[in-house]
């Protein structure tokens, strides 16, 4: 063997490359398949969460997000549907809301693997569904992400309007009973919340809001317990109530239920922070377990709340509690305090998006002034809208119809269609048919619920102030 034919150590490979030898052509590779192929990206393995949430903690967060003021509106929802239609409608809406969230989380996990990102927000997931969808729609991914970001911000601002109306209604009922000589309109009570809310919303760090959130959660449990006591106290016969209400009021029912149940804004943050995110979906899974509890609780409160109060059921069942009972009146005040403390936490969501927009500024000058101004303007706008339309039941229905039916139903079904367009829709395209049906349901709920709510708001807005005061509480 000549010196030219001697093997060089630095070129030596421990695995024989038989296929590269022209004299020995073989399809057999001695190298392992794992060494040849790149390992599939697993987003769960790349998530770096400083304080991951346990499975139980994730369920607690979901329940906290879904079981709030919305559950107290369920008796009013049943008033617009009847007992039988209400039970069926609550179960149906719950199943649809459960499924659409599953769609979003499933797509998010898939696009994270494709994009090689550990996690994505709701808006990022929607944009990525277009980015990894049909080629003709990929240029729209950035626009879709921005649109969803703006939509979430507007949605939470609309929820803040509900909160202001809730506080004003609760305070007015208590003051009217103990101080009948004080004749302050519901609109004025809404306006009176402006300064305290504007000051509270100047808190910019989320960790400083934790004590407020903790107090709100404790008080909410107390309120809920007392409310259920009065709901089940001397309950009248079921036969005294309508089984199926007029179909003309069904849109109000559906919009209220969607508003109460839909937690699309909190789902992705919870899943992204989980220690074992693979447990979020599946059976039983975090989401399915949470929604079984939510649907059951909403059905019970709505059913028995309507049996107890009938057509007198108000936008929050706490407003129906007996006026001559001190504990009941204290409950209304406590609920107003709960909403007040919860306001800043909900306010944080749109401000987080606005702060991301502000980071694009070239200069940091006047940052403090800009922050104070934006926060004050938003709170003032929210209070003004609430004072203009202080019918709690109609405001909840309108917000549910316009915003939550879009974000919670229409968007998830639409992005599932886009993402799976080139991947297939299963046997007889059942996924496509199912998603189209969800889109239709969402559009019908949006149009009908918004129409009925707006008509009701116009009628209330056109009434004389004296009559309005007695109507809204």
UniProtKB/TrEMBL annotation:
Keywords: Membrane, Transmembrane, Transmembrane helix. It comes from the Eukaryota. Pfam families: Aa_trans. GO terms for cellular component: vacuolar membrane. Residues 52-454 form the Amino acid transporter transmembrane domain. It is a multi-pass membrane protein. GO terms for molecular function: L-amino acid transmembrane transporter activity. The chain crosses the membrane at residues 56-78, 84-107, 147-166, 178-201, 208-232, 244-268, 280-306, 326-349, 369-389, 395-415, 436-458. InterPro entries: AA_transpt_TM (IPR013057). It is found in: Membrane. PANTHER family: AMINO ACID TRANSPORTER (PTHR22950), GH04538P (PTHR22950:SF494). This is Amino acid transporter transmembrane domain-containing protein. It comes from Pieris brassicae.
């Amino acid at each position: 063997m000549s010196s030219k034919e001697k093997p060089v150590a630095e070129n030596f490979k421990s695995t024989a490359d038989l296929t590269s030898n022209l004299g020995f052509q073989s399809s057999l590779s001695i190298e392992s398949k794992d060494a040849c192929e790149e390992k599939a990206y697993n987003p769960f393995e790349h998530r770096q969460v400083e304080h991951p949430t346990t499975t139980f903690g994730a369920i607690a967060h979901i329940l906290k997000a879904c079981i709030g003021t919305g559950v107290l509106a369920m008796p009013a929802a049943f008033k617009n549907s009847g007992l039988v239609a209400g039970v069926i409608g609550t179960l149906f809406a719950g199943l649809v809301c459960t499924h659409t969230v599953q769609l979003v989380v499933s797509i998010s996990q898939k696009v994270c693997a494709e994009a090689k990102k550990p996690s994505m927000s709701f808006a990022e997931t929607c944009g990525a569904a277009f980015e990894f969808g049909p080629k003709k729609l990929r240029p729209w991914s950035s626009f879709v992400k921005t649109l969803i970001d703006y939509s979430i911000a507007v949605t939470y601002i609309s929820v803040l309007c509900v909160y202001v109306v809730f506080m004003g209604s609760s305070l007015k009922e208590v003051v009217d009973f103990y101080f009948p000589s004080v004749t302050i309109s519901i609109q004025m009570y809404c306006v009176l919340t402006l300064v305290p809310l504007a000051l509270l919303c100047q808190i910019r760090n989320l960790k400083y809001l934790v004590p407020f959130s903790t107090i709100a959660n404790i008080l909410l449990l107390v309120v809920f317990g007392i409310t259920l006591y009065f709901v089940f106290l001397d309950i009248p016969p079921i036969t005294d109530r309508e089984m199926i209400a007029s179909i003309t009021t069904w849109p109000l029912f559906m919009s209220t239920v969607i508003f109460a149940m839909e937690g699309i804004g909190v789902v992705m943050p919870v899943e992204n922070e989980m220690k074992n995110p693979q447990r979020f979906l599946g059976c039983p899974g975090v989401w399915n377990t949470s929604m079984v509890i939510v649907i059951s609780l909403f059905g019970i409160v709505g059913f028995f709340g309507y049996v107890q109060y009938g057509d007198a059921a108000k936008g929050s069942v706490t407003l129906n509690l007996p006026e001559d009972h001190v504990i009941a009146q204290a409950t209304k005040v406590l609920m107003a305090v709960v909403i007040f403390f919860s306001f800043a936490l909900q306010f944080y969501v749109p401000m987080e998006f606005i702060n991301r927009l502000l980071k694009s500024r070239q200069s940091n000058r006047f940052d403090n002034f800009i922050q104070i101004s934006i926060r004050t303007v938003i709170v003032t706008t929210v209070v003004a809208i609430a004072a203009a339309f202080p019918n709690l039941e109609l405001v909840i229905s309108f917000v549910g119809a316009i915003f939550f039916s879009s974000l919670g139903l229409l968007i998830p079904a639409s992005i599932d269609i886009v993402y799976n367009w080139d991947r297939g829709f299963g046997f007889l395209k059942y996924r496509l048919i199912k998603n189209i049906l969800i889109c239709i349901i969402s559009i019908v709920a949006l149009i009908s619920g918004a129409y009925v709510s707006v008509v009701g708001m116009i009628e209330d807005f056109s009434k004389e102030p004296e009559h309005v005061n007695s109507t809204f509480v």
